[in-house]
Amino acid sequence: MGKTTDDRPAYLTSDAAKYSLGVNRGPLLAKGLDESAALEQVESAGGLSLETRERTRRNKLARHWKRFWCIYLLANIIFLAIFLPVFFLVAIPAISQLVVDKSDLVLVKAAVMQPLPNSIQLTLQSALDLKIALPVRIEPVKLDLFLRGRGASNAWGEATIPGMTIKGNTTLGVTNTHTPLQNLTTWVNYVHSVVFQKESTLSVKGTTNSYLGVLKSKVTLNKDVRSPVLNQFNGFSISDSGLVARRPDGTNLIGNATLPNPSVLTLEVGTIVLDVKSGDLVIGNATLKDVTLVPGNNTFPLTGILDLGKIVSNLGKVLSSQANLLKTGNLTLDTVATSVTWNGTRVPYYTEVLNQLTLTANVPVASLLKNSIHNLIRSSENISSLLPSPSHIGGINSTGGDSTRGPGSEVSELSSKMKAHIAMRDLFRDADPVKRDTIIDSMARMHQKL
User: Which of 15, 144, 319, 334 makes the best surface tag, with the fewest CB within 10 Å?
Assistant: First the structure.
């Protein structure tokens, strides 16, 4: 054995040294092995192969598991004991509530019928879309019906939804259910929003149990349902109006009133009595009987009592308030509800709300006068008994009539006949005679032009 220059021992380099004993010998080779074989032997002797290592690792894990399996089992039991209650009591209800919160609730049909001072008959159908493919079963749920600004504690009523299975888009609600009015202040506010606004909101809230398969969770439905409503009866009109001979109940005005309803709501109102006004002067009243508003345009017979004596005595004031519109050939009639009754019982909430609404209709003067004259003529006598002859109506002459008379004589004769007609005298019985004759002369001239 020699030494290196830095005093480190040097291995023997001769072939014989490979088979020598001692700390300085080289790798021990078997006889007959070449260098590559010797290298394999050295690598194998220096460590385990990959396969052997993997087998050794599995053996170690197996021995470890056999030794500590009870600890792992206990740890899993503890984990599941903590996780499963959290999953079923927290995660599942939270997911169910999130599904409900993200769902859409749309009003598809509603009806308020049989309005009494303290109750209504309610139909309320809404479409609920849970946006999940799995069916969800719910138990019966009592929904508070309220206004968001007043809170569920001030609900105006409640509706109980029966238990059912919801899958996708499902309709749920109540039909023809007697519903006591629990908070009249909230109810009046809701009715006001339905009458005056273009779109109204009904808030609903209730809690129930839902089942997704066998998984049970408690969910709360707390939704605002928005829908179009009456919008102050925009488009209200009075048509086919005219004076008639005074009836036993005092009626001397008839026509048709149209009340638009752009909502999905059917509303049974009852009999509405309205003041009829020209400007700020009340000139009579009108009645709409048995009003039930269904979606779309609703037309009802209108009967009224005009105080013609008051109109004649205040003719200057009436004409002044109508001056601008009369230039277009129309006059304005304003109507304001003074009472609403259903089945003979006063409905205070409808009366209160409708009393705040003024309905304005533009009535063509020519149509009003034409209808009035024909109504009065036909009320008690044949038209030929009032006019000089049938051929002179509208200024049309025939070979059998007196063609020598001009339009002025026809107007004068018609005016005289109208003044003498019993229906006309009764209609204007409270009017000043001079002003009455002036109005009749105007009506005769208007009829001649029509």
Answer: 15
User: What are the phi and psi torsion angles at 212 (to 5°)?
Assistant: -105, 95
CA atoms within 13 A on the CB side of 415: 18
Domains of the chain: 101-229 (2.60.40), 232-364 (2.60.40), 369-449 (no CATH)
Contact 436/398 with Cβ under 8 angstroms?
no
Measured torsion, CA atoms of residues 149, 150, 152, 153, in degrees rounded to the nearest 10? 160
**Encoding tokens for residue 404?**
């020598």
- Closest by Cα among 210, 119, 123 to 164: 210
Measure the CA–CA gap between 194 and 228, rounded to whole angstroms.
Answer: 8
Q: CA 85, 88, 89, 95: dihedral to nearest 10 degrees?
A: 140
DSSP codes, 133-162: SS-EEE--EEEEEE-TTT-GGG-SEEEEEP
